[in-house]
Amino acid sequence: MKNGFLLIFALLLFGNHLSSAQTTAAIVGIEKSIKADGKYAILAGNYKHFEGSVRTGLRMRNGNPDLQFQIVLIGMVVKEITTDEHLLALVEDCKTAGIQIVICQNAMKALNVTKSELHPYIETTSSGFLYMFGLQENGYKVITL
């Protein structure tokens, strides 16, 4: 009885390890399916989403100069990006890596942000949502946060 229990326990433990390894391999396979010349965009509305978007873009563009990556900003981050030193450093990282940043003018208006307050690398669009629809029509794979 005791040996049977140990055998079952060992099989369960090994089975879970095998399943975990298969899952990890599947995840890595999916991550590697990103095209080196793909077109990707993320719509971000807050500080943490922008930060995560930049980190994702940097990782994707690393070694893939033909990959296009854009970050479209709406919401409170539009105001924060004018004064927060960490966010401004992330904008510089984007500039260096060739990641385009586009800010919604509707959000700028609602938050009393002027174009002159923005980092010179940042572009603007009349509507972040319309811009995202346009990116989709132009073959971009998009994520909205």
Could you provide a short overview of the structure?
With 145 residues, this protein is α/β, with parallel strands linked by helices. The chain is 54% helix and 17% strand.
CATH class category of the largest domain: Alpha Beta
CATH homologous superfamily descriptor of the largest domain = DsrEFH-like
Query: Can you tell me the number of structural domains?
Result: 2
- Categorize the overall geometry: elongated
Q: Strand order of the main beta sheet, please?
A: 4-3-2-1-5
CATH topology of the largest domain: Hypothetical Protein Ychn, Chain: A
Proportion of residues in extended strands: 15-25%
Q: Indicate the low-confidence ranges by residue numbers.
A: none
Q: How many H/I helices? A: 6
Number of strands: 5
Query: What CATH architecture of the largest domain do you see?
Result: 3-Layer(aba) Sandwich
Query: Main beta sheet: strand number and arrangement?
Result: 5 strands, parallel
Helix-strand topology string = HEHEHHEHEHE
Q: Structural class, from secondary structure content?
A: alpha/beta
Which whole number gives the mean pLDDT?
A: 91
Helicity, in percent?
40-55%
Describe the structure.
With 145 residues, the chain is α/β, with parallel strands linked by helices. The protein has two domains: 1-33; 35-144, Hypothetical Protein Ychn, Chain: A (3-Layer(aba) Sandwich). It is 54% helix and 17% strand. It has six helices and five strands, in the order αβαβααβαβαβ. It has a five-stranded parallel beta sheet with strand order 4-3-2-1-5, sandwiched between helices. Helix 5 (105-110) links the parallel strand 3 and strand 4 (123-125). Helix 2 (47-61) packs parallel to helix 4 (85-97). The longest helix has 30 residues, at 2-31. The chain is elongated, with a radius of gyration of 21 Å. The N and C termini lie far apart (54 Å).
